[in-house]
Structure formats: C-alpha cells, structure tokens
Amino acid sequence: MGRKLQFEIFRYNPQDTKSVPFMQTFFLEETDKMTLFIALNRLREEQDPSLIFDFCCRAGICGACAMVINGKPGLACQTQTKDQPDKIVLHPLPIFKLIGDLSVDTGVWFREMYQKTESWIHTNKIFDPTKEEERMENLVAEQIYELERCIECGCCVAACGTARMREDFMGAASLNRIARFMVDPRDERTEQQYFDIVGNDYGIFGCMGLLACEDICPKKLPLQNQLGYLRRKMGITAIKQYIPSIVTKTLIPGVQKMLPDSVRKRLENVFPDPFC
C-alpha cells in the first residue's frame, strides 16, 4: 500500500456571493507514479465534483495546471507526489484573476503583455507569399527557438517578488518576450524603441534580480541570461542617451566652452555600442 496523502486545498468561488475562502482537507492513498494532476482528478471524481482546477495536455506543454504547490509555483502534471511530503498544500497562482479554487485566468494578463511589448515582428517589408522564407543562421534560429519555448504558465510571474509588490511590473515572461524579438534579425525596431518599452522601472530596471523566475520555470528557460542581456543593452542605451548630455551640458558647462571642436566631438563618442 502507498502512503496516505493529506491535501490542504484552497477553496473559493468568486462567482458565488455566499462563498468565502477556506482550506479544505482531503485524504488519498498514493499510487505508483502518481502526479498531482492524477491526484486532483481522483479527488474530483471520487470525493468532491465541485473542485475547480485547470488541465489540458498532461505533458507540461499547455501550462494550464500551474498552481502553488507547498509554497512554490509549479505544474501539477509534472509534479510527482513521491517527491512531496505526506501533507501537500495547494493554492492558486497569485497576481492572476481567480476563477475558482485552483483555477486562474492567465489569458487576460498575457494578452495585455503582448500589447505592452508589441509582440510581433516589426518590419516595413511587404509580405510576398510567392517568395521563399527569409533565411537566417542556425545559431540565431536556435536562440529564437530557445526563447519561444515559454508555455505561458505564469509560474515565473507568480514567483516574482517585484510582481507581487507592483501590479505594473512586466515580469520575466514579458522581458523574455522582448529578448526574443531583439535577437530576431527580421525585427527592424531600434534599441531606442525597445528602450521605450522596457527601459524603465516597470521593465528591466524594476527587476530585483532575485531570479525566482528561473528557479521555478518548468521549461528551464535561461531567464537569468536574458535578464542580464536586456539590462546590459538597455543600460548602454540609457548611457548613450543621457550621459553625454550631462557631461557636456550640465556638469562642466564652463569647461565645455573652452574645449576645441575636435575634443568635443571625441567626447560625444566616448560611449560606443559594444554590441554593434
């Protein structure tokens, strides 16, 4: 016989005016290779048909079954009960709109994210269906593919300390999306245009660098690398935009007048872009 598992599950239906939040206890005997997805389905089929949670693919691809598992966001279909203690506590993902019990609406958040990041290829080229697709280097294609593996489960957003404190913070999923288009040679946006989107406190400079997003990402995306890449790129863009004017016009306005033209021109070019 397997272990007797105790489940403490958050229950609340915001559609029911009489419903109030509470934790409900369930008990279930563990079976071989049981996942939380299997356990939740058994609880709903055998004990309480009103239990609300989401699922679709059962393969860690759709991201629908994301929830907080013993205080840590994760996918129910990818979490085996044998790796959990006898008592398993389940909550819905924070930040997102609650539908009921363990189910949240991530779609609204991600739709707004796509609008904020302008998540599409920006180009002036007119599409010609009769022409061959644009070719790119295999290394670039692999970089884009790596960032496209995000399944939009919302775990990284739910684990983010900044997102928990600030509703306007874009989160790792948004910043990863921007990085994906920055490495795509088909996108014709300038660094300044990217800076206008994420070069601020609710973008890359709002990230505290705790990296809980990378720790809990079910697809193991290299979020630390992408956040560092964006911070460098946007930092250099900010320096190029602001520092020359500060040095030449604010800090030493008297000295500026005394400098020869050749020196002033060199001063304006002391911050070349190392990524060019």
Structure description:
With 276 residues, this protein is α+β, with helices and mostly antiparallel strands. The chain folds into 2 domains: 4-104, Beta-grasp domain (Ubiquitin-like (UB roll)); 118-125 and 133-239, Fumarate Reductase Iron-sulfur Protein, Chain B, domain 2. It is built from 11 helices and 7 strands. The strands form 2 sheets. It has a 5-stranded mixed sheet. It has a two-stranded antiparallel ribbon with strand order 6-7. Strand 3 (66-69) and strand 4 form a beta hairpin. The longest helix has 29 residues, at 223-251. The model is unreliable at 270-276 (pLDDT under 50).
Question: Brief overview, please?
Answer:
The chain has eleven helices and seven strands. 41% of the residues lie in helices and 13% in strands. A hairpin with a 2-residue loop joins strand 3 (66-69) and strand 4.
| Largest sheet entry | 5 strands, mixed
Order of helices and strands: EEHEEEEEHHHHHHHHHH
Gap between N and C termini: 63 Å
Find the CATH superfamily of the largest domain.
Alpha-helical ferredoxin
**What fraction of the residues are assigned to beta strands by DSSP?**
5-15%
Q: Domains counted in the coordinates: how many?
A: 2
Strand order of the largest sheet: 2-1-5-3-4
Uncertain segments: 270-276
Query: How much helical structure, as a percent, in the residues?
Result: 40-55%
The radius of gyration over CA amounts to 24 Å
Overall geometric form: elongated
What is the class of the largest domain in the CATH system?
Mainly Alpha
What is the averaged pLDDT score?
Answer: 87
